[in-house]
Amino acid sequence: MTSDPKIPPQSQDSMPADEYPMEPSPDYRPRHPGTGKLKGQVALVTGGDSGIGRAVAVLYAREGANLAIAYLDEHEDAEETKRLVEEEGGEALLIPGDLGQKAQAEDAVAKTVERFGQLDILVNNAAQQFLDKGLEDLDEETLRRTMDSNVMSYFFCTQAALPHLKEGASIICTTSVNAYKGNAALVAYSTTRGASLAFARSMSSALVDRGIRVNAVAPGPIWTPFIPGSMPPERVEDFGSGTPMGRAGQPWEVATAYLFLASSDGSYYTGQCLHPNGGKIVNA
């Protein structure tokens, strides 16, 4: 069982937001001893400084992987994630920058391969979220920023990674429950998550003959910096209580899906999407 800590009102004035001020702290710690499922592999996790990305990085390190952690500018969170990866016995390379710019995505992949000599797993996870005031008031700058972060970075990172991915490699894209059910207050964000889902499914067909698996994970309400960074305090309070399970999910509960899809446990999965969402039934 997972405890259900009450989430008090809080907010931050930045996107991406930071994990270190959140109360309670998101729970990213793996629950089980590693068994070497990713031993000798190298993963590039975008948005790996905090939230789901941090939980994935720490779990991958426990399972034997070395990590390249790409993020925008949340340096304090990134340094903590690096420490956590190293605590698990892995090596960590921090790569700050805007992956919505193609040159930065190419640089992130190049630095990963230069440091580790290979790339086996790409986790397209970096994203931004903004609460809509209504479609009429959605400004072009915010819309383009959301698209660049949540869609273009997935294209650019995958393009850069493909020359280095060999048979048996895995690409995992973060999408959202909102790609399936929609969200009137997150139209732009939900649209980008629909795009990331379609991207994963299309790339799975494009790469299956090369032995590269491409899948997606569609989290529901998870307690990450997304929430205080994009919502007013009154909406943050008791976040996730409307799910069938009655609580928000924690990052560690989502990271296990990324491990399954990256490891040989998921060897017969491509073009699929896993749904850690607290019980919301969606058309998969």
Automatic annotation (TrEMBL):
State the family it belongs to: Belongs to the short-chain dehydrogenases/reductases (SDR) family.
The protein's superkingdom reads Bacteria
Q: For bias kind Polar residues, which ranges apply?
A: 1-14
Taxonomic classification:
Bacteria, Pseudomonadati, Pseudomonadota, Alphaproteobacteria, Rhodobacterales
Matches recorded under PANTHER family: NADPH-DEPENDENT ALDEHYDE REDUCTASE 1, CHLOROPLASTIC, NADPH-DEPENDENT ALDEHYDE REDUCTASE-LIKE PROTEIN, CHLOROPLASTIC-RELATED
Entry protein name: SDR family oxidoreductase
Q: Has the keyword Oxidoreductase been applied to this entry? A: yes
Q: Where is this region: Disordered?
A: 1-38
Keywords for the protein's UniProt record, in alphabetical order: Oxidoreductase
Query: What's a Pfam family this protein contains?
Result: adh_short_C2
GO molecular function annotations of the record: oxidoreductase activity, acting on CH-OH group of donors
Spans through the membrane: none
